[in-house]
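== Sequence entry ==
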Amino acid sequence: MPDDPYLTKRFLTAYFPPSIAERFRDSMDAHRLRRELIATRMVNELVDLVGSTFVFGLMRDHGVGAWQAVRAWLIGVDVLGIGELAESFHAGVPFPHNGEIELEGFFALERATTRAAGWAIQNVDRELPIGAAVESFRGAFQDLAVQFDHFLTAGERERFETAYRELRRAVADGEVAHRLARLAFADHLLSTLALSFARKISPAQAAATYFGLSAKLDFSRLESAIAEVSDEDRWERRAAQELAGELHAARMALCNALLDEGDDFPGAIKLLRSKRSARFAEAAQLLGEVSTMPTVTMPAVHVAIRAISRLAART
């Protein structure tokens, strides 16, 4: 991993004073401690931003090796721009003289990073260079992040507004609170962009389809139940992540099915509903039942997600 060219610029060049880095720019790749310096600086930054157990959590939840977890973390933080936000937090910009509130900001960054890293593990080709992955998504992510909340519906809009209210009580700067609330949807934004790239459509059209679907099939309660599964039982946690992956795949398949029906979302959802009426009715009924449960159990989540997967299947 330290041989990835992106990491030389990201960690090694920044290690030296600018004058030295400029003068010996062409010699950086030949530095005898290049790999050691990159690895040390990378791990130091990771632990500083998300803590010493972050990699273990990704390995446990997704069944990957340490290097894959670190790679996913790096893609996530660089696409989301977590480093820049963290620097402003360290400077105390939105948290004047209040360490407890500052921690709330860092916890919000950690949650966003966890979502983005989990998405990267499941969806970014392991053979794709880190720099290419970051370049593909970073600009588009930043553009979509400032407007996607206009597309939110049902439980996802409620979740966003709740996150913003909670962060607004903790963060003095309203814009920072808004940005952190948006980052809580990092994995959804990345999925929306992946849909946009694959279908060669605008991010806005992809977002209208991706988030508009939740007005008919509200996935938010299932996602909340999965997120609340305790870390105490690693098998239960792993099972929850497997279900999250299945739900994501089904949602993306449904989005593609809707886009196959045409650009008019209301018309597309009507056509899909008529073609798959029995499966649509089953999924909608189960999601309605889940939404009224005081406590959503894993068996209920499992049954509902399997119904959504059947709805998403073409046959």
